Amino acid sequence: MLNFVTFMECLNAPNSTCMTSPGVLAPVVLTLMLVGAGALLARRDRKRFRVLRSRGIWGTFLILAYSVIVLAYFFLFSPDAVMGAAQSDIENGFWITAVLLYGIGIAGLVGMLGFALGGWLVKKKKPTSSTATMANRLVIAIDGPAASGKGTVAKRIAQHYGLPCLDTGLLYRAVARDCVANGAALEDEVAATAAARALDAATLDDPNLRGPAAGDAASIVAKMPGVRAALLDYQRRFASQPGGAVLDGRDIGTVICPNADVKMFVTATAEERARRRHLEHQARGEDISYDMVLADIRRRDERDSARNVAPLEAAADAITLDTTTLNADAAFAAALEIIAAKRKT
After folding, report:
1. CA 283 vs CA 278, 286, 287, 307: distances in Å
2. 145 and 95 in a common domain
3. How confident is the prediction for the chain on average, in pLDDT?
4. Residue 19 has pLDDT above 60, yes or no
5. What is the phi/psi pair of residue 66, to 5°?
6. Residue 161 sits in the same domain as residue 296
């Protein structure tokens, strides 16, 4: 008959054979195995390790809590079961189950603590110098006004180095789109901020975000501090990927990634940028005059440069790339030269 008296007698007799029995040694061995398992999983996939650690500790804690409550009931209201003399088989069954769950809970909790200890012992090694950081990661920040060619340069650089690329302007276009879809005015910062917090990054491939109306709307919500703060964490997480990333926008080198390995400010004259944008509209079959496009370019430049939060400007250590007289291939080649020169230093 399983009872606490026998269990306590074993614990109080350290010289007896019960202390060296498999029932005592097994938890020790299991704990050591879980320490190793935690260390191995934390090294391979730290996110999954954290999930398993949390679920494991909470699960064993619930089992232990349930068993303690049941055992307390028996100690208080049915002491005969504790002494191995239960009045019925059902009562005895509940007692045995509670004792077994208590043992499982204790072993599980100790094991999960060992699992957590193993993960804690494995810490990610940080680069010891800027040279090591540059060798392992490459974060490239590309800023510039509308239609300067920064998006094309960013995509080709990302493809060249095998890095993920983020057009941060799409985030603000998507926020403006969702704000209007929710029936709110673009000038409503509360609604725009809520849309930014609820933004689904999977919708950034929406072709409607590429139109002129989306760009003008984005310029309105982009000047709102609440919107920019809501999108800041997403952009920084994107830039913190293991191999690095390429981001283009208007405040990447100044706000989002001030410690980027390479910073470029891609620009061109307003007239040349308007000519390029006008050709894009014509290619999509959109009837809009060059003068209207030029006026829109100048209006957006004024709005982006004059806003109080994260205005359009080149970072102090950014290299300016003027693409006024360059085609896409020449601009890409010039960008590669800038990156190569920066990495050498």
Report:
1. 9, 8, 10, 32
2. no
3. 83
4. no
5. -65, -45
6. yes
